[in-house]
Amino acid sequence: MNKVILVAHGKLAHEMKNSAEMIFGELPDFESIEFLKEEGLDTVQEKISAAIKDEAASYLILTDLFCGTPYNASCAVAMKNPECEIEVVSGMSLPIVLEVASMLSGSLQEIVNHATSIPCDTVKAFKQQMIEEEEDF
């Protein structure tokens, strides 16, 4: 069983889950963790550790920024829990969260591989896209 933990600066993770649920429906295997201004790395690590409740589950932790506090705390938790299958991926976006939600029955590695390939398909510049589409005709 795969579970997803969203971790981000401020309330972004909570709102990302709320937005995904507007589109996808209830996401019971998702948990969101906020990182507030007054908190530090240790506090975020404690929150993430508390979210890893089911040792039989595999966990994908999606964070907002590479090398930001949520990412660093997530990596620290993953390294401190080698008995758990935990993957950490940065660059969380709504398209990635929705794709992950649709793939939860797959293997954790398949989910990670797909999630890391999504940005090139979802980040588009309007004018550049128009030029590319015109060239195709």
UniProtKB/TrEMBL annotation:
GO terms for biological process: phosphoenolpyruvate-dependent sugar phosphotransferase system. Pfam families: EIIA-man. The keyword Mitochondrion does not apply. InterPro entries: Bacterial_PTS_sugar_comp (IPR051471), PTS_EIIA_man (IPR013789), PTS_EIIA_man-typ (IPR004701), PTS_EIIA_man-typ_sf (IPR036662), PTS_IIA_man (IPR033887). One of its GO terms (cellular component) is membrane. One of its GO terms (molecular function) is phosphotransferase activity, alcohol group as acceptor. Gene3D superfamilies: Phosphotransferase system, mannose-type IIA component (3.40.50.510). The keyword Cell wall biogenesis/degradation does not apply. PANTHER family: PTS PERMEASE-RELATED-RELATED, PTS SYSTEM MANNOSE-SPECIFIC EIIAB COMPONENT-RELATED. NCBIfam families: EIIA-man. This is PTS sugar transporter subunit IIA. The lineage of its organism: Bacteria, Bacillati, Bacillota, Bacilli, Lactobacillales.
